[in-house]
Amino acid sequence: MAVDIDQKVATEKKLAEKNAEIAGMLDSIADGFYALNHKWEITYFNKTAEQVLCCKREDVIGKNIWDYFPRSREGKFYEEYHRAMREKVVVQFEECYWPLEVWGSIRVYPSADGISVYFVDITEQKKVQEKIYNNEQNLSAIINNTNDAIWSIDRDFRYISANTAFWERLRAKFGTQEGALTRGDFDKDRFQEWAVYYQRAFAGETFKIVRSTETPEGKVYEEVSFNPIRNKNQEVIGVSCFARDITAAYLHIQQIETQNEQLRKIAWTQSHELRLPVANILGLSELVDQENCGNPANRELLKLMIKSVTQLDQVIRKITGYTSNPTSPS
């Protein structure tokens, strides 16, 4: 009898030591961990779970999880825990415990006594994901709130991204759906033209071009920017492009340049062609015999003055032609 009691004590001691070892291991892991029995009572709660869920194990041990954490009935917790308990299957999911605003990546394992729950606090990851998502939405709103076409391609000429204006423009030209455009949709000359631009950008060059296109409404001018896309090793992995309609501005600049050219012609005409007849008239007027109007020499001087006035009139008409018809030839 004494031997049996000693063996029992020894066995219980070993069991207690093993349980303490397991408890120590569970407390040392980075994952949160707790165990539930078939009555949904919490039978174990490690230190990480205490820290993440802001409670003490002595306060939760023996408590019904749905009573102690009533908001855990919301979301996926209630449904997935019951499924693991009922079907004896491993389940994994992500969910937020909203009273604490804590996101967890949760794995639930069935056990002989109930279920074991391991979870990792992924709150910061979710915040980063949310920030990235919000930034993407803001960027999407910005690039789609314009009539300018914005797109990017990889080194195989496949589209990485594009805004609504770009796809609408291609849909109008080719009748293709978003993302469905292929190299075969372009004629050879058009593809070769753009391939030259892309290859310049693939080589690391940032540049702009102005190209014109004939439309039923007339000629349209576009300014297209090409910018290399680099990875963290500064290798060019694609090209981003920005095309905007500059027809009004381009034609206005052309008009200003034409007007400036006409002004240069007028200035040259005034400084070279206009001075000669004026100088002739002034010189001849000095030779007129005002004391003797009947002097025969006056008649010859008058003829020369009339000739110079005629030349002056022609020059004035030429200048007037520049101002009334800016495209007239010189």
Structural overview:
The chain is an alpha+beta fold and 330 residues long. The protein folds into 3 domains: 31-125, PAS domain (Beta-Lactamase, 2-Layer Sandwich), CATH 3.30.450.20; 148-245, PAS domain (Beta-Lactamase, 2-Layer Sandwich); 251-324, Helix Hairpins (Orthogonal Bundle), CATH 1.10.287. The protein is built from 11 helices and 10 strands. The chain has helices at residues 2-28, 47-53, 57-60, 65-68, 77-87, 123-144, 164-174, 188-202, 247-272, 275-287, 296-324; strands spanning 32-37, 42-45, 91-97, 102-110, 114-121, 149-154, 159-162, 207-215, 218-230, 236-245. The strands form 2 sheets. Strands 2-1-5-4-3 form a 5-stranded antiparallel β-sheet. The protein has a 5-stranded antiparallel β-sheet with strand order 7-6-10-9-8. β4 (102-110) and β5 (114-121) form a beta hairpin. It starts with a helix and ends in a 6-residue tail after the last helix.
Total number of strands:
10
Beta-strand residue percentage: 15-25%
What topology, given as strand order, has the largest sheet?
2-1-5-4-3
CATH topological fold name of the largest domain: Beta-Lactamase
Structural class: alpha+beta
- The H/E string reads HEEHHHHEEEHEEHHEEEHHH
Low-confidence stretches: none
CATH superfamily of the largest domain: PAS domain
Quickly name the level 1 CATH class of the largest domain. Alpha Beta
Major beta sheet summary: 5 strands, antiparallel
The radius of gyration computed from the alpha-carbon positions, rounded to a whole number of angstroms, is 44 Å
Helix content: 40-55%
- The separation of the N and C termini measures 131 Å
Keywords: ATP-binding, Kinase, Membrane, Nucleotide-binding, Transferase, Transmembrane, Transmembrane helix, Two-component regulatory system
GO biological process, one term: osmosensory signaling via phosphorelay pathway
Domain PAS: 18-88
Membrane topology: Multi-pass membrane protein
